[in-house]
Amino acid sequence: MTISLDASQWVRRFHPAPAAAVRLVCFPHAGGSASYYHPVSAALAPAVEVLAVQYPGRQDRHAEAPVDDLFVLADRLADVLAAETTGPVAFFGHSMGASLAFEVARRLEARGTRLLTLFVSGRRAPSTVRDERIHEKGDDALLAEVKRLGGTDTSVLDDEDIRGLVLPALRSDYKAAELYRYRPGPDVGCPIVALIGDSDPKVTEAETGPWAERTSAEFELKTYPGGHFYLNDHAGAVIRLIGDRLARFAR
Questions:
Q1: Helix H segments across the chain?
Q2: Catalytically annotated residue among 95, 99, 121, 172
Q3: So what CATH class is 7-247?
Q4: pTM for this structure?
Q5: Is 95 one of the catalytic residues?
């Protein structure tokens, strides 16, 4: 499979801020797209420039084949983002995006780029495994899982045409996330801030704590009321947290 390394394909800048002292790269969840982070970009600009990652197979990249291997995605994104992370940078990833952000951070650190902070949201630690096989189930079961988690306006999934556009990328992302297994090796040297919802069916506090083992720096756990997409209801608080953590670098 040939995968583009053109940064303009992979990265969206909704509010360009070339003079910003800090950049925040945001990685979407399974089935998600760069536009999910538009409100984050609007809130943090111009002090922090937000770069939202757009995976193949969705929105303006719908004609491209989605990638169902998280390590392949991490390799490609490390190549793409190397030129975008020459200054102070932090990562934020939600759900599958948290695992992906961690793997890209590992690769960039191996090249000499250390993040300011790695924010991992709604995702268990890499060494904590659940044997999940939703990607192997039929379309109805896959869509039922998406509706159960409630990340988007799931009523749109009742439209047959939209389902046809969404399902290939969604199934591919679920496969990448569910088959991901941590590979021992150098982790990261930046602080990790983990964020979860207290009633998230996809991750518990016990599964989140081992993120502390993946960094040689500080670890912090923040818990909010809500489920897997707690951050939809607490967007303001999460954005303030990110802004506060990065403010010291944005002066």
A1: 7-10, 38-44, 70-82, 96-110, 139-149, 160-179, 205-208, 230-233, 235-247
A2: 95
A3: alpha beta
A4: 0.94
A5: yes
